[in-house]
Amino acid sequence: MGLPLGIALASRGLSVVLYDINAAAVDVVNSxxxxxAEEGAAQVLADVVEAGRLRATTEPSxxxxxxxxxxVVGTPVDEHLNPDxxxxxxxxxxxxxxxxDGQLVVLRSTxxxxxxxxxxxxxxxxxxxVDVAFCPERIAEGKAMTELFELPxxxxxxxxxxxxxxxxxxxxxxxxxxxxxxxxxELAKLFTNTWRYIKFATANQxxxxxxxxxxxxxxxxxxxxxxxxxxxxxxxxxxxxxxCLFKDTMQLAAFNRNNFVLGxxxxxxxxxxxxxxxxxxxxxxxxxxxxxxxxxxAFKGGSDDPRESLAYKLRKILMLKTRETLCTDPYVVDxxxxxxxxxxxxxDLLVIAAPHAxxxxxDTDKPVVDMWGLTGQGVRV
Length: 381
Ligand SMILES: NC(=O)c1ccc[n+]([C@@H]2O[C@H](COP(=O)([O-])OP(=O)(O)OC[C@H]3O[C@@H](n4cnc5c(N)ncnc54)[C@H](O)[C@@H]3O)[C@@H](O)[C@H]2O)c1
Fold this sequence. Notes:
This is UDP-N-acetyl-D-mannosaminuronic acid dehydrogenase. About 40% of the residues lie in helices and about 10% in strands. It contains 13 helices and eleven strands. Helix 1 packs across helix 3. The longest helix has about 30 residues, at about 180-210.
């Protein structure tokens, strides 16, 4: 998220330095190359690097020369689903000796509620007189170069000066600014992702119900949402995964003393989907006799990002059950994958795990399992 933001700000004429501890990523960016897919960003990156408006560095002292410092480090939950409250403070701690009075520090990572206050305390405790703001990132991966300029920006800070400075920074990108208190904004971001995660879970459970009853959820969904605005946003079924929705729902659950029935139910439904899919397949096929091809390993269609992808969970389960499991993806790079043509030749059964448009019109006579409705054949499995 830091790179697209930096590219967007540089494209608006600001001078941007990206400080990162990953030296390999820094080298790639400095060569003017995008290290991952982000629509519309490659050419702009090449242009702003060439123009000298954006550079990356592993040098922590670089933060000292910035008027505005934006923190966008990852904020994962651990293996016990506990949020790491220290990710943002640790990142700032690493470069704290170079921070100076009068800077604006914007937290943009999705954080556990209270991390903004914790950061303010940490910096004040070190005697650093900076303004702190929390301005969450709400774009969807792949859409950064349009959404950064079109979505309203939530801006929050404890004092009017910090608020005005953060607003001025984001006015370089967007005209719509929404003010909140920091704690409200922290919850706003978690509510946003959790809301989406629960919506996907609802569609997935409806799909399983219809499916178990021998009915095609795609037909039912079409009927519900057709010219009916109150159900227009009901999603299609599919793997709800990736680096954000699951972990942010778990951050919110942890914040609410692990008392979040709706969020935990959404997790059980969404994370259980690969197992459901396999159990349905076991009713129809003797998997132990079959080679199964998984098409699409990214966490969502059109993406090259495999982080927290449920396609890998599906792979794990199928490897236990099948004669052989083959995986392929046109965008994700992984030595274990097989080219699509070989998968189409060798597999007896194909499962679309990421709805890449490439799979909408497959040239195959093998059965294709498509819970997404990508192939237009309904979603009964
Ligand atoms: N991925 C999304 O779609 C999305 C959308 C909205 C918000 N967010 C939030 O944005 C934040 C970042 O997500 P991401 O997907 O870009 O994560 P990421 O892991 O892809 O990127 C984080 C970057 O920070 C670098 N980093 C880690 N520790 C550092 C340190 N101490 N100093 C300097 N650099 C350091 C890493 O090397 C990496 O390049 C998370 O809080 C996430 O929840 C993500």
